[in-house]
């Protein structure tokens, strides 16, 4: 299983540090966070894509996925007026263009909170309409969308493997697939392996970190409550051949270089215990 470095935790450092560290610590790829100051899609369109390409070439590090920021600041396609939804769709289309141009295999989306007063039928109509539009564009440019389920602390829309399976029933496109961040199922008492059982060939990516009961904080592998060594063994037995990003976000933002090293070392040690 290939292991990737997520760049969100480096947002107070030069982006080049993430590429340097991915190379020297032995990460197989980078998952590029799409926010300022590093890789915000409009900035990439205005010329910064050349910075990304030069870093990839200089350090010989692949960008497997592009993960644009769109969970309410300022974009969230699940809430607000129709003009706000359309604005987010156009933004995500640009993100897919930039993901495609940098050679990423996919652009990731995660349906955020739809508002406390929104009925399920309303939110699901908005979700499926939006993802269908994005799927049509992904097909047009021959790119993939990976949809991520979030925790109940972050969304009231897509929170589980069942939610993803339901979405794929409504939007049946080979250009739209799913993934599992292992913290959302863990914190809500869902089986992590249910993602493999329910999504089957739509299960294409993972975020592997650690978590603790009752919170959505992403911890270094081995420093939370998830039985990671046993989980990794089950994933291997299942035959999963996709990649897994160590998604350290902002909990370790003060020293991302130190924790990126510890994270992959500890994950490798857990993998060896399988």
Automatic annotation (TrEMBL):
InterPro entries for the chain: IolE/XylAMocC-like, Xyl_isomerase-like_sf, Xyl_isomerase-like_TIM-brl
SUPFAM superfamilies tied to this protein: Xylose isomerase-like
Residue ranges of the TM segments: none
Domain of life: Bacteria
Occurrences of domain Xylose isomerase-like TIM barrel (ranges): 21-269
Protein name per UniProt: Fructoselysine 3-epimerase
Classification of source organism: Bacteria, Bacillati, Bacillota, Clostridia, Eubacteriales
């Amino acid at each position: 299983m290939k292991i990737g470095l997520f760049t969100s935790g480096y947002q107070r450092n030069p982006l080049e540090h993430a590429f340097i560290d991915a190379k020297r610590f032995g990460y197989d790829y980078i998952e590029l966070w799409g926010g300022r100051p590093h890789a915000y899609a409009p900035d990439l369109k205005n010329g910064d894509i050349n910075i990304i390409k030069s870093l990839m070439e200089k350090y010989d590090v692949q960008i497997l996925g592009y993960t644009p920021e769109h969970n309410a600041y300022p974009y969230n396609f699940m809430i607000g007026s129709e003009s706000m939804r359309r604005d987010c769709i156009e933004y995500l289309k640009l993100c897919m263009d930039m993901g495609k141009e940098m050679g990423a295999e996919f652009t990731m989306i995660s349906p955020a909170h739809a508002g406390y007063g929104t009925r399920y039928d309303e939110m699901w109509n908005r979700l499926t309409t939006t993802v269908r539009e994005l799927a049509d564009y992904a097909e047009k440019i021959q790119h993939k969308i990976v949809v991520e389920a979030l925790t109940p602390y972050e969304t009231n829309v897509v929170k589980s493997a069942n939610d993803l399976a339901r979405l794929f029933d409504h939007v049946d496109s080979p250009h739209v697939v799913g993934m599992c961040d292992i913290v959302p199922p863990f914190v809500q008492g869902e089986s992590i392996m249910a993602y493999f059982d329910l999504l089957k060939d739509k299960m294409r990516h993972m975020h592997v970190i650690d978590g603790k009961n009752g919170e959505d904080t992403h911890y270094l592998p081995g420093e939370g409550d998830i039985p990671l060594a046993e989980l990794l063994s089950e994933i291997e037995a299942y035959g999963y051949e996709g990649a897994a990003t160590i998604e350290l976000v902002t909990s370790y933002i003060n020293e991302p270089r130190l924790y990126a090293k510890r994270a992959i070392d500890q994950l490798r040690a857990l993998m060896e215990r399988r």
